[in-house]
Design brief:
The chain has twelve helices and 15 strands. By secondary structure, the chain is an alpha+beta fold. A hairpin with a 5-residue loop joins strand 3 and strand 4. The radius of gyration is 23 Å and the shape is globular.
Length: about 500
């Protein structure tokens, strides 16, 4: 009797549904034509006497280990999205040797290779939606390029895969050194058991009375474009004050930054009842082994902030944190469903991602002579604005990603300047009310496409921490990715420059 080539048929997570919908909607007329904004990339710079056939065998073992990496994505005749897990899939593997080129040309060629890999679309119905490319740059320096569609995994999964791949390499493909796999299907089963009615009611209460959405770029749906970015690195002293003040008031860094972004939206839209998207990890702690599961767990949920001008800032932030705590058990609901509950169409077109993940176990310094010298990554988003922040080495790194067809670089710089001024004010918030926080200057407001009424500056200008742009710049912490979730109109993850870590965040349309 012939054995079926299929191992399993599974439902999709909320974000996977949106990503599949987006991929089908944006499918080009010709094969592989046009880059998919949700093609992401991880690059491991490996030093030491690398054995390429052995690494290839480890990559094949990784595919055998995780069933959901062998999934193809499609829709049934009735429109129901499914992922079909194959028992075996071919390993997409390619090797390139740059050592015959002059040393001064190799970096440019590597950059072209990375761009070419990102530009090649995946057919989600033909697994796997990933590919490896090993680039030899010097005798003892290689770059392993792992390109994948975001539908397979989130940023939290990236370091898990990296560690497992290199452990398999050190063990010559033997999985005995790794713990048993916690399958992704366990999480999908957990999703199916959740009380949908209770979650819908929680979101109905949270959004009750919301008069209108918060859109910085209202208008018809726009074709995806690669975002640009600006980044700022805050001083250690300011970061320490911010974190210590939050701890003293029983607040999280996430809450402080949510408050900051809400006040930015007040300036961009002229509203005091604002909504934006927030990325959540989506990993329920009650599932055994959830911290080492590989897959797409993240979601984007609305954050509503009502800015009472007379309220002390510390009290306003505490209220925000309390309101968000009421929704912690309901963050698995699809964004499209939440927006239908609100009855306002698209609730927002900006997203905040605060990267604040547990560190996990320290990786071995060497895998049978091979060391990871650097990890870099690329991802992209469709939202007009996306703010990404995280702590690295005692400093808060903040990146603003923006659509260049909507915001000029000077306008993005003005928004980022305002973010920094608000962070400074929040760090020294003793006695401040919401109305006493910094406002945009008329000069800065004139640069923006928003329509908020002019407001006076209440704080004098202060020197800005160092920042950077696309050339040779460091981005926020990205080794554990996070991503936005299904939005009926907008999509999101922004282009990230090469960094010492990597992340993904995406916000995408969900089927109506």
């Amino acid at each position: 009797m012939k054995t079926s080539g299929l191992e399993d048929v599974l439902p999709l997570s909320p974000l996977q549904e949106g990503l599949l919908f987006h991929a089908l909607a944006e499918e080009p007329e010709t094969d592989s034509a046009g880059a998919d904004i949700y093609t992401t990339q991880l690059v491991l710079d490996l030093t030491g006497p690398l054995d390429a056939p052995r690494l290839r065998a480890a990559a094949a073992a990784l595919l055998r280990r995780h069933a959901n990496l062998r999934a193809g994505f499609r829709q049934r005749a009735n429109g129901q999205p499914i992922q079909v897990v194959h028992r075996e899939v071919p390993l997409p593997w390619q090797e390139t040797d740059l050592t015959r080129l002059p040393a001064g040309e190799r970096d440019d060629v590597l950059r072209a290779i990375l761009a070419d890999e990102r530009a090649h679309r995946f057919d989600l119905a033909a697994p796997p939606a990933l590919r490896f490319r090993l680039v030899r740059r010097e005798e003892r320096l290689h770059s392993l390029v792992l390109t994948n569609h975001h539908i397979l995994w989130d940023g939290w999964s990236a370091p898990v895969l990296q560690r497992e791949l290199l452990t398999l390499y050190a063990g010559h493909g033997d999985p005995a050194a790794l713990p048993p796999v916690s399958p992704y299907r366990t999480y999908l089963a957990w999703l199916a058991r959740q009380d949908r009615a209770a979650s819908e009611e929680a979101w109905r209460r949270a959004l009750d009375g919301l008069a209108e959405p918060t859109l910085v770029a209202p208008g018809p749906e726009r074709k995806p474009v690669q975002p640009e970015y600006r980044t700022v690195e805050l001083p250690e002293e300011l970061t320490a004050r911010l974190v210590a003040g939050a701890r003293a008031d029983g607040l999280t860094l996430n809450t402080l930054l949510q408050g900051v972004w809400a006040m930015v939206l007040r300036e961009l839209t002229g509203r005091t009842d604002v909504v934006f998207g927030s990325v959540v990890s989506g990993r329920p702690p009650e599932i055994s082994g959830i911290e080492t599961m590989v897959g797409l767990f993240i979601n984007t949920v609305p954050v509503r902030v009502r800015l009472d001008p007379d309220l002390p800032l510390t009290e306003a932030l505490g209220r925000l944190q309390d309101e968000q705590a009421l929704l912690l058990d309901h963050q698995q609901l699809r964004l499209g469903d939440v927006q239908r509950i609100a009855g306002a169409g698209d609730l927002f077109d900006t997203v905040l991602t605060v990267e604040n993940y547990p560190g996990g176990e320290a990786a071995p310094p060497s895998y049978d002579g091979i060391r990871v010298a650097q990890v870099s990554g690329q991802d992209a988003a469709h939202y007009p604005l996306r703010l990404i922040a995280g702590l690295v080495g005692g400093r808060l790194l903040v990146r603003l990603e923006y659509r260049p067809d909507l915001y000029e670089p000077a306008a993005a710089e003005a928004v980022l300047d305002h973010v920094v001024r608000l962070v400074e004010a929040v760090a020294d918030r003793s006695g401040l009310t919401v109305s006493q926080l910094p406002r945009l200057s008329d000069d800065a407001r004139a640069l923006l496409p928003g329509r908020a009424a002019p407001a006076p500056r209440t704080h004098p200008p202060t020197p800005r921490p160092r920042r950077g742009g696309p050339a040779g710049q460091r981005a926020p912490p990205r080794s554990r990715r996070s991503c936005a979730a299904c939005s009926p109109r907008s999509s999101g993850t922004g282009t990230s420059p090469p960094t010492t870590t990597s992340s993904t965040g995406a916000g995408i349309r969900s089927p109506r």
